[in-house]
Amino acid sequence: MKRLLFAAGLGLLVFASGALALEAFVAWGKPVGATGVRYELWRDRGGWHLRWTGAGSFHHFFGKIWAPGGEVFLLRRHRLERGDRVWREGRGIRFDALAVGGWDGFDFRWRGKRLILDLEIDGRPCRRRIYIGADGVHPRTQPFSIVRGPRAGKPYRFYCCFGFSM
């Protein structure tokens, strides 16, 4: 009986950890229609893009992205102001920037099965101000993760009820 309960608990843990991840296909396309202070994360044929805007007021953007067992590659910085920093740290990327208007950010690629993002605005988690992909999906948790989908020809899973809302 104890073994059965242990196996059931372990199975639930594995299921729940996978359920909290957003699959990479959801991030396809630039978010549209969002307004206000925010992050936007999307991917297209040019790679992955993370942008932020203060939408006319002064805000501090800080975060880290990393790929456990993989690596994140910084491709290009986008319109950073003097004093803003984006740098490689280990196998990930960190950034620390102040923004008022316009769009700042960077482009990247990653290798591995999972990408983890921990993003803050003004020193606080900001999951409702993170827009992912063309549909503007918000993560339910923070930090949040994105996983690569199955190989071509296999169906995708989207865990809307557990990890992300639209």
Secondary structure layout plus pairing:
Blueprint: H1 2-19, E1 21-23, E2 38-44, E3 47-53, E4 59-66, E5 71-78, E6 85-89, E7 92-99, E8 104-111, E9 114-121, E10 124-125, E11 130-132, E12 138-139, E13 144-147, E14 164-165
Identify the notable features of this structure and list them briefly.
166 residues, mainly beta, five-stranded mixed β-sheet, disordered C terminus
Question: Brief overview, please?
Answer:
The protein starts with a helix and ends with a strand. The protein contains one helix and 14 strands; from the N terminus they run αββββββββββββββ. The protein has one helix at residues 2-19, and strands at residues 21-23, 38-44, 47-53, 59-66, 71-78, 85-89, 92-99, 104-111, 114-121, 124-125, 130-132, 138-139, 144-147, 164-165.
